[in-house]
Amino acid sequence: MSEWFQMRARSGNRDVWLSVHADSEPEVWGWPWLLPDGQTSVYDFILDWRPDALPFPVWLSPSNRGSRWGDMLFTGGLALKVMSTRMIQALEAINAGGYRTFDLDVRDADGSTVEGYVGFATDPTRESDIQNIYDQDGQNSVFIARQRVVEALRQHGANELDIQPYTPD
Predict the structure, then answer these.
(1) Residues linked to residue 78 through DSSP beta bridges, in sequence order
(2) What is the span of the domain harbouring residue 124?
(3) What's the CA gap between 39 and 34, in Å, rounded?
(4) Residues 6 or more apart whose Cβ sits within 8 Å of residue 114
(5) What are phi and psi of 36, to 5 degrees?
(6) Cα–Cα distance measured from residue 166 to residue 41, given in angstroms and rounded to the nearest whole number
(7) 109, 114, 119, 120: CA torsion to nearest 10
(8) Contact call for residues 59 and 114 (beta carbons, < 8 A)
(9) pLDDT 10s per residue in the chain (169 long)?
(10) What gap in Å lies between CA 162 and CA 158, rounded to an integer?
C-alpha cells in the first residue's frame, strides 16, 4: 500500500461549489476577466495567492445549489484550494509540513460571511508531508499527502473531502 494519498474537494450535487466574485466582475461571466487596463488578468492574482494586490476586494461564494460545506471546497477547477479550519487544526496537531494558509472571504448564497475556511497552498518540493501533485511547480486543485496526514484528519473528524490512495509514477 502506498504511503501517499491524493486529496481533492468533493464535487457532487450536494457539495458547495465556490466561484470567485467581485464588484468589478464582468456582467457576463467569462474569460478573460481583466483589470481596467484591459490586459491584466484578475485570475493571475487569485491563482498566485495575491488577491489582496487587486484594486478591489474579491470573495468566494456558492455557484451551485449544494448545501454540504466540506473540509475542502470545490472551486470549479481553479487551482485555488479552500480548507476548513478544522482541517488546519488537524495538520497543526501533528506539525505537518508542506503548506501555508491565507485569509479568504467566503460567503454563503445570501452574501453573509462563512467562518471556518482559509486558503491553502501546497509545497512544490518533494520533502514535505503535503505536496503538489505530479511534481508541479504551481498550485493545483488536487494535492498529495502522507498517510500520517490522512490519519490525523480522520482523528480530528476533518475528512469531508475525497481521499484516494496515490502511487507516484
Answers:
(1) none
(2) 4-166
(3) 6
(4) 69, 106, 107, 108
(5) -55, -20
(6) 34
(7) -110
(8) no
(9) 579 999 999 999 999 999 888 876 655 445 677 777 888 887 777 776 677 788 878 889 999 999 999 999 999 877 889 999 999 999 999 999 999 898 889 999 999 999 999 999 887 777 899 998 877 777 888 999 999 999 999 999 999 999 999 987 6
(10) 11
The total of structural domains in the chain comes to 1
Please state the three-class secondary structure of the chain as a single string: CCCEEEEECCCCCCECEEEEEECCCCCCCCCCCECCCCCCEHHHHHHCCCHHHCCCCEEEEECCCCCECCCEEECCCCCCEEEEHHHHHHHHHCCCCCEEEECCCEECCCCCECCCEEEEEEECCCCCCEEEHHHCCCCCCCEEEEHHHHHHHHHCCCCCCEEEEECCC
The amino acid that residue 26 corresponds to is: P
The C-alpha cell that represents 29 in the structure block? 461571466
Q: Are 84 and 120 spatial neighbours (Cβ–Cβ below 8 Å)?
A: no
Rounded to whole angstroms, how far apart are CA atoms 129 and 4?
Answer: 9
* Type of residue numbered 162: D
